[in-house]
Each structure stands twice: as C-alpha cells, then as structure tokens.
From TrEMBL:
It comes from Porphyra umbilicalis (Purple laver). PROSITE patterns: HMG_BOX_2 (PS50118). GO terms for cellular component: nucleus. GO terms for molecular function: DNA binding. Keywords: DNA-binding, Nucleus. This is HMG box domain-containing protein.
Length: 321
C-alpha cells in the first residue's frame, strides 16, 4: 500500500499543470461539497445538543415538580394531623404569647439535618428546589432497607417523640401558669371592686340625697310660686269687687260743666288739639260763666252730693247689721 502510494505520488508530480487541472477542479468542487455538508452537520449536531439539553432540563423540572408535590402533600398531611389532634377538625388557634414551641415531626427534624447537605451538593438550586430534593430524600429514606437508613429513621422518630413529650410537659406547665395568672387577676379585680364599692355607695347615697333635696326645694319653690300667684289673683279679685261695690264719689259743678261742653270745645279747637288744650279752654270758659249759667251745674253737683251721702249712710247701716 505504501509503495503504491509512492508510485502514484511520483506520477502526480510528473504531470503537467494542464493534466492536473481537471483533477484540481474536481477536488475544489468536492471540497465545497464537504464544507456545505459539514456546515449542515454542525447545525444538526447543535440542534441535537440543544434538544438534549432541553430534555435534560425538562426531566430535571419534572423530577423537581414531583419532589415538590410530594413535599407539599406531606406538609398538608402533617398539618391535617396536627389540626385533627389539636381540636378535632376545628381551625387551630393562634399561638398565644409565651406558649411553648410546637413539637417538630420526624420529617421536619430530618429536613433540618439534610438541608445543609443538599445545599452543598446543589449550590445553584433555589429554595424551592432544595425543599423538593429534601422531600425526595425523605421519601427514599422511608422505604430504605439498610441498617444505617433504618437507624437514622428511628433516630428522627425518637427525636420527634421526645420533642412531642417536651411540648406536652411545657404546655401543661404553661396552662397551669396561665390559670394561676387568670385567678390572680380575677382576685385583684375582686379586691379592687371591694375597695371601690364603699366609697362608690357613699357617693351614690350622697348624690341621691342631693337629688332628693333638689327635688324638694324645686317642689317648695313651685308651691310658693303657685300660692303667690293665687294670692295676687285673690287680691285683684278683692280690689275689683271693692271697686265694683264702692260708692262713686260726687262730682263738682265744674265737672258737670266740663262734661256738658267738652265735645263742643273739642270741635272748635279741632281734632288735632291735645287734651291739655281742651282742659285749659274749659277751665278758662268756666271762669267766665255767670252765676245764672252755672246754676244748672251747681244743682246737678248738689244732687250728686246728696246721692253720695245717702249711699254712704246706707252702706254704713248695712255694715253695722
């Protein structure tokens, strides 16, 4: 084979450029064919690699999703168990201040121990992915048959039982302390009530007495006002009766003259004339009246005086009976 290649090589060297030209042209064409096919192959290879990477990522995602689903299902199961044990299906009460820390399950203890190792093995994994991987390890540990795995599982279960016992002991003590605290608060409230009861009753009694005194004063004031009003009414009635039954005093001759001439004087002076002007004019005219013109008025005055004296005598006689 080597000798044949040497002979062919010697013959190729002996060929002229014209003789080599067809072969060189064919070689160039084949080279172009190769480069084209190589480019297509490279693209196909890259696509295959991309597809392989995508499938690997997809498979990892499926595994992570499955692990996460298992983890969430486990958490839901643990929560349901805790809720059922706490209040038989009712909503768990919020943790009260100062209450003991709730016990951890075997899974949570396992997760706390395994988390750092998983994080170290998968430094680029997210928190969710780490949780899924821990859940997957827990699932595998539950079905593992090796002595080491069984011992580890028994250790977590024992630790969970111990933590549960710790919680129950602390919870019992906490409940007793809360009951004692409530009893002390109730006793203090009762003492405070008893201490305030006496002054409060005294203040109430004083307020009641003050209110009664105020009502009594108001009633007395109202009664006095009613009596004063009645007294005034009686006084007015007496005065009215006295006035109605009183003997009218006799009028003078001048008064009879004024009564007879007042309207005429008012007409002469005009409607706008004041009363004082009318009275002054009557007085002026009375002074100028002759005795003859005065005589009717004097007679009327004397008759009125006689009437007054007679009525007065009758009243005195009636009073003496």
């Amino acid at each position: 084979m080597t000798e044949l290649a040497a002979v062919i090589g010697a013959q190729w060297k002996a060929l002229s450029d014209g003789a080599k030209a067809p072969h060189e042209k064919a070689a160039a064409k084949d080279k172009a064919r190769y480069e084209k096919e190589m480019e297509a192959y490279a693209k196909t290879k890259k696509a295959a690699a991309d597809e392989e990477a995508a499938m690997a990522k997809y498979n990892e995602g499926v595994k992570a999703a499955a692990a996460m689903a298992f983890y969430e299902a486990h958490l839901a199961e643990e929560a349901a168990k805790a809720a059922a044990a706490a209040d038989k299906g009712k909503k768990k009460a919020k943790k009260q201040e100062g209450a003991p820390k709730r016990p951890q399950s075997a899974y949570l203890l396992f997760a706390a121990e395994a988390r750092e190792g998983v994080k170290a093995a998968h430094p680029d994994a997210s928190v969710t992915e780490i949780m899924g991987l821990v859940a997957a390890e827990w699932k595998a540990a539950q079905v593992a048959t090796s002595k080491k795995a069984k011992a580890a599982m028994a250790r977590h279960v024992a630790a969970a039982d111990a933590d549960k016992a710790r919680y129950e002991t602390e919870m019992e003590a906490w409940k007793e302390a809360k009951a004692a605290e409530a009893a002390a608060a109730k006793a203090a409230e009762a003492d405070a009530y008893a201490a305030a009861k006496g002054p409060a009753l005294a203040a109430y009694a004083k307020a009641a007495a003050d209110e009664a005194a105020a009502k009594e004063w108001k009633a007395a004031t109202k009664k006095a006002a009613v009596e004063a009003k009645a007294e005034k009414a009686a006084d007015r009635a007496a005065k009215a009766e006295k006035k109605a039954t009183a003997i009218k005093r006799p009028q003078s001759a001048y008064m009879f003259y004024c009564a007879a001439h007042r309207e005429a004087v008012k007409a002469e002076l005009g409607a706008a004339a004041p009363v004082t002007a009318v009275v002054s004019e009557l007085a002026r005219r009375w002074k100028g009246v002759s005795d003859a013109d005065r005589s009717p008025h004097v007679a009327a005055a004397e008759a009125d005086k006689a009437r007054y004296e007679a009525a007065k005598a009758d009243a005195a006689k009636a009073a003496s009976c």
